[in-house]
Amino acid sequence: MEPTSPSIAVILPCYNEESSIGRVVEAFRQVLPQARILVYDNNSTDQTLAKAKEAGAEVRQEPRQGKGQVIRRMFADIDADVYVMADGDGTYEASAAPGMIDRLLTHQLDMVVGSRHDAGEQEQYRPGHRLGNQLLTHSVALLFGRGFSDMLSGYRVFSRRFVKTFPAHSNGFEIETEFTVHALHHNLPCQEFPTRYGARAPGSVSKLNTYQDGLRILLMILLLAKEARPFAFFGLISLLLTAAALLMAIPIFITFFETGLVPRVPTALLCLGMVLMASISLTSGIILNSISRARSELYRYHYLRHPPHPVVAHPETAQSRPS
Fold first, then answer.
1. Spatial strand order in the sheet of 111-118
2. The pTM is what?
3. In the predicted model, is pLDDT for residue 303 greater than 60?
């Protein structure tokens, strides 16, 4: 029996991208003619839906606002062997998709991240976004020991295994952070693939708020660190509380050894309370670490229930990446 080509779905979350979505759909259709191209509209107030339909995409809608909401819906509704996710603003290089898919299939990966590089024009990657991306990327690498060079890239290729076992807790732009931490926490096979990052189409504006969404992403990193590394998270809190209590208690001990008296009773009680809180935090970390390990084992069981994607010579994806 001859092996069949993997089914490919190009999934494009969109919000008010009428100026670019048609060209994005056509670009992916040109490089991946065998793929389904699906545009999920997220309450656009312009002609995004009409432009996507004109370009030949399958169009669906998600009324709950937020990129994370859209991706959760796409992952639940769409069935394929390979998923190519990009934005509808035209900044991502569609011609890189065959190479990314080939990398996924050839190396039996679960995620390939399109790491972004400017195509000679600096304005498309704003300095605030670039700096924030670097800080958040390094934060994840510090917490999990390794990471990606472009953690917040919205251009990714996934396996069925990844998509159908991804928890998808995020509602907004922090979804890319959740992709990364999820892959690192469960030690899933992933790689990066360099892609060009172009300027937006005229009339298209970024939906990312540098400070508000940056704060939400940072909070998501801390939340996921608590879930994935509970012993380290609560152990650090325990260590800080203990250190603070000891520093506050030094004058009390000095006075006690000199006079035999404890004149600062409220401070002594506060130090005792902080040590008790530190003990509770450490105990919580130990207990939650056991629970986290059990959840990881359960996740592994569900992950392995999905068969690996086939390794096949695919004429559309085996081609080298265009220069």
1. 58-61, 36-41, 8-14, 82-85, 156-159, 111-118, 190-197
2. 0.81
3. yes
